[in-house]
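Batch job 17 of 40 flagged for manual review because the log was empty.
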Amino acid sequence: LVYEVCTAIKQLPKNKQVPVIAIGGIATWQDAVEFIMAGATAVQVGTNTFANPNSMIEIIDGLKEFMKRKGFNTIEDFRGCAL
């Protein structure tokens, strides 16, 4: 759904575009990367923190390593690349 919403928002004039925050189903850094590539401006991790209290640290560290491997300096470098 994030992909579909971001695709629709991208069709709007710049002054009408709004950020999309992805929530639901984000448990790993790979999940966060997929949502960002689908165009999400931010991701929210909720329920998974009850099952794994370290999930936020693991997601942040995983994102950093992914970006380093791929040569991305900022999240903006790959945000929406799947659109």
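Reviewer: the log was empty due to a logging misconfiguration, but the result itself is present. The two ends are 12 Å apart (CA to CA). Unflagging and moving on to job 18.
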